[in-house]
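yo, DUF255 domain-containing protein is done. seq:
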Amino acid sequence: MKKLGLLALLMANLFASDIAWNDTYAQAQAKAKKEAKPMLVIITTEQCRWCRKLEATTLSDDEVVSKINSRFVPVHLTRDKSVYPKNLTAKMVPMSYFLDGNGKILHSMPGYWPVEDYQSILDDALRKTKK
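structure:
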């Protein structure tokens, strides 16, 4: 019975979905314009434990992943290494920005958020893009 449970856990991890991150801000912006979707820009640092927690929990949740992949153009940036516009300041990390295809900030949210709260943040951002 233990082997069956272990097999089920391994299979669940094997088929877990991932966010379809774009490689660069410029690539994400071009895709956002083309697909008429808002961008989700997440800025982190390598040494940030809250960034790792957001990635390991919230951004690994199947429902969050599905919503991000279907409704946003996501890009994950490293604060001190990635190239992105100066108006995206990330004094606090992790930082989630929601932008239109022209780079206008529609909504932003600093910090780590658990799954249920991040779902609400995504919904709020989608409402703001429709205005």
